[in-house]
């Protein structure tokens, strides 16, 4: 277990101290794990206090939602453990006045017992106190009665509605009514891709196979209601949304708010993919999604996975969700457009490829070469990914495969002359190959196209001059030199091999074969070089021992071209 903690038993207190240190609008009780608003007036002047909490490990819940317009106080228990009665009572006494307090409780036995008993003791102290339960986990709809379901991420929306109502100055009965109404209609379902590790346990709470997921996760690292094989994000979202709408019944057909919540280890990229499909499915099912939020709102430590919540909306709820809040973790009103705003890109005239163009004398050969290069790069995808993962960000294989697919999609008009082909290749590769490789290849191809402008059937010297221009352009724009451990090592060695073969009187086909062999040897040699440019340079000596992926990619496509030229020469000789 690797965690940035000191003593696991002190982790919750130290977390709250760090939060209070950087949040001047908050205060921390000296003798209890309670965060409360630091701007509260004297008790007699206080509005209804809205208090929630539970076990820690759900950050930013619950302390992140303390602030004007949301929670008045949050009570933190140990990780995934209900806070004590004394802690909850201390929160009530510290934050409430004659207007009273509303306790928002997630539906877990420990939370219900401790918060409810604290409410009884607060009433004995003369503080009007109401309690309400959030039980929004619809994954349990076929297993337990509705009032026994767990309280999960939909609780945050209840916090906001109750907090805004209290900030308006509404009496306790009305604040409780609005909160209970929202809690009765909000529906949530989650999925987990893996487990989390409680600091005091030191090991994951359960194990999943490489291709397994859990449907119906809670927020305490527990297993779901069923285990399934991993599916695409869209298929997973389809199942969740269908379950939510089935449970909500007629509520699901009106205006709703969508709450896409990460469980702690799911990156924003994946949460946005989930949100995209959820919006698409909901709209297709006749729902008007008026508000949406995407992010980590109620987590389960570092658990990978997410949940979706739906809350039916009316004008009153919309007003309360729109009301301002100073709670640091509340993301704002969540307003979204009725549909995605797509704007067409403007492309420069140089991008245009003639729709019709007569084939030239080398069109067939050019098409054969491009197909061979595409084949070679696709077959090398996993190898290039592995090499790049060891010394870079691991995207080279996928980028080159996308480039290969783009080359296959070039129109026949692109192959009319070498110039039109190189321009078309430059335009498509600069868009499809990620990172630095795309601009390098695009620049090299533009330079080669310029050298061959107006030449429909280049001779060996003209091909060589175009290749030299292309190689030099890579060094010019990137600053690489031989020995820097980049793709330029393979390119410069290939150019030297070409020139040596030409000086020895070799044919163009044989010269290219020499060039490809030189590129291959140079790519192998990069394994013994300390990188001086690019992302691999950040690794220093740790990159030594693995050849540079960009250099290997150069060798791969050069050898593919060499094989086409070899076969062509054999065919001519036997004709």
Automatic annotation (TrEMBL):
InterPro entries: DhaK_dom, DhaL_dom, DhaL_dom_sf, Dihydroxyacetone_Kinase. GO terms for cellular component: cytosol. PROSITE patterns: DHAK, DHAL. It holds the Pfam family Dak2. Transmembrane segments: none annotated. Keywords: ATP-binding, Kinase, Nucleotide-binding, Transferase. GO terms for molecular function: ATP binding; glycerone kinase activity. SMART domains: Dak2 (SM01120). One of its GO terms (biological process) is glycerol catabolic process. This is Dihydroxyacetone kinase.
């Amino acid at each position: 277990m690797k965690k940035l903690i000191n003593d696991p038993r002190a982790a919750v207190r130290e977390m709250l101290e760090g939060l209070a240190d950087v949040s001047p609008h908050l205060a921390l009780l000296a003798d209890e794990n309670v965060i409360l608003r630091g701007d509260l007036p004297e008790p007699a002047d206080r509005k209804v206090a809205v208090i929630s909490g539970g076990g820690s490990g759900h950050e930013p819940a619950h302390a992140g939602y303390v602030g004007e317009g949301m929670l008045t106080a949050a009570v933190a228990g140990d990780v995934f453990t209900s806070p004590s009665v004394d802690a909850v009572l201390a929160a009530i006494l510290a934050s409430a006045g004659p207007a009273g307090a509303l306790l928002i409780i997630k539906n877990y036995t420990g939370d219900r017992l401790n918060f409810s008993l604290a409410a009884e003791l607060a009433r004995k102290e003369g503080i009007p106190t109401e309690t309400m339960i959030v039980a929004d986990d619809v994954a349990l709809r076929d297993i337990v009665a509705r009032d026994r379901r767990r309280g999960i991420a939909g609780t945050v929306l209840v916090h906001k509605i109750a907090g805004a109502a209290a900030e308006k100055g509404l009496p306790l009965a009305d604040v409780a009514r609005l909160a209970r109404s929202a809690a009765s209609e909000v529906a949530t379902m989650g999925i987990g891709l893996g487990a989390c590790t409680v600091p005091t346990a030191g090991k994951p709470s359960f194990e999943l196979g490489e291709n397994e997921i859990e449907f119906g996760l809670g927020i305490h690292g527990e297993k779901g209601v069923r285990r399934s094989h991993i599916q695409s994000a869209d298929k997973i979202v389809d199942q969740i949304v269908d379950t939510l709408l089935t449970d909500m019944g007629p509520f699901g057909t009106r205006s709703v708010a969508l709450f896409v919540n990460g469980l702690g280890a799911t990156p924003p990229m994946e949460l946005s993919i989930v949100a995209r499909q959820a919006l698409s499915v909901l709209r297709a099912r006749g729902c008007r999604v008026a508000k949406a939020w995407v992010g980590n709102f109620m987590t389960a430590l570092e658990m990978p996975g997410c949940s979706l919540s739906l809350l039916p909306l009316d004008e009153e709820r919309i007003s309360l969700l729109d009301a301002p809040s100073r709670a640091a973790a509340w993301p704002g009103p969540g307003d979204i457009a009725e549909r995605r705003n797509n704007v067409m890109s403007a492309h420069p005239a140089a991008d245009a490829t003639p729709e019709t163009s007569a084939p030239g004398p080398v069109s067939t050969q050019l098409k054969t070469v491009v197909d061979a290069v595409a084949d070679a790069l696709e077959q090398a995808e996993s190898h290039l990914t592995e090499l790049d993962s060891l010394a870079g960000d691991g995207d080279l294989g996928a980028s080159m495969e996308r480039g290969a697919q783009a080359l296959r999609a070039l129109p026949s008009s692109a192959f009319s002359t070498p110039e039109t082909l190189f321009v078309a290749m430059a335009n498509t590769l600069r868009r499809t190959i990620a990172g630095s490789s795309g601009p390098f290849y695009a620049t090299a191809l533009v330079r080669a196209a310029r050298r061959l402008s107006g030449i429909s059937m280049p001779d060996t010297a003209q091909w060589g001059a175009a290749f030299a221009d292309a190689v030099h352009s890579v060094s010019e724009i990137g600053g690489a030199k031989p020995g820097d451990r980049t793709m330029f090592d393979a390119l410069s060695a290939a150019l030297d091999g070409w020139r040596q073969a030409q000086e020895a009187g070799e044919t163009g086909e044989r010269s290219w074969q020499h060039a490809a062999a030189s590129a291959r040897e140079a790519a192998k040699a990069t394994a013994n070089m300390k990188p001086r440019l690019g992302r691999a340079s950040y690794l220093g000596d740790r990159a030594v021992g693995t050849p540079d992926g960009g250099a290997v990619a150069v060798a791969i496509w050069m050898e593919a071209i060499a094989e086409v030229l070899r076969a062509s020469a054999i065919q001519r000789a036997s004709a």
